[in-house]
């Protein structure tokens, strides 16, 4: 059966239903399974790729994402982009005793990802339902 691609809106709706019901989901793989099941109630040919779902999930206002990561074995070129959601990374700086600043690493401007200079590779995600802030 050929797959069809749901809209961001449809993915967000399915995600909301899943996280409100589950309260917490311990991996992206599990989350994707549940979201796809939800999407297929609407259209049995729907599917969503893990990176697209991850990008939508980490920026959801009703979810907290916990990112487990391991240290990269080689220095990675992040190219200023977040490996989790694709947004811009901001430098984290520290002042030196000589009055200058030194870059310690990067934090993402739209999701909880952070890294030191060597690079942290995300390995596992945990998603938790949080009440909508008003
Ligand atoms: Zn990010």
Question: Could you describe the 3D structure shown?
Answer:
The structure is a single chain. With 134 residues, the chain is α+β, with helices and mostly antiparallel strands. 29% of the residues lie in helices and 29% in strands. The strands form two sheets. Strands 1-6-2 form a three-stranded antiparallel sheet. Strands 3-4-5 form a three-stranded antiparallel sheet, with no helix packed on it. Helix 1 crosses helix 2 (28-42). It binds zinc ion.
**Bound molecule kinds, no repeats:** zinc ion
Average pLDDT for all residues: 91
Rg measurement, Å: 17 Å
The secondary-structure element order is HEHHEEEEE
Total discrete domains: 1
- Helicity range: 25-40%
Which word captures the global form?
Answer: elongated
Main sheet makeup: 3 strands, antiparallel
Q: What is the terminal-to-terminal distance?
A: 42 Å
Structural class: alpha+beta
Number of strands: 6
Spans of at least 5 consecutive residues whose pLDDT stays below 50 are none
Strand order of the largest sheet: 1-6-2
SS element count, helices: 3
Summarize the structure.
Helices cover 29% and strands 29% of the residues.
Helices, strands, pairings?
Elements: H1 8-22, E1 24-25, H2 28-42, H3 50-58, E2 63-71, E3 89-95, E4 101-108, E5 114-116, E6 120-129
Antiparallel strand pairs: 1-6, 2-6, 3-4, 4-5
The structure holds zinc ion.
């Amino acid at each position: 059966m050929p797959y069809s691609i749901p809209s961001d809106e449809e993915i967000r709706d399915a995600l909301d239903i899943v996280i409100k019901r589950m309260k917490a989901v311990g991996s992206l793989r599990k989350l994707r399974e549940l979201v796809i099941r939800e999407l297929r109630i609407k259209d049995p040919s729907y599917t969503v790729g893990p990176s697209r779902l991850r990008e939508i999930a980490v920026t959801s206002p009703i979810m907290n994402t916990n990112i487990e990561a391991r240290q990269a074995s080689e220095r990675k070129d992040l190219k200023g982009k977040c490996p989790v959601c694709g947004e811009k990374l901001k430098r984290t700086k520290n002042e030196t005793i000589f009055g200058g600043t030194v870059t310690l690493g990067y934090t993402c401007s739209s999701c909880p990802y952070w890294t030191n200079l060597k690079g942290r590779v995300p390995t596992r995600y945990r998603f938790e339902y949080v009440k909508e802030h008003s």
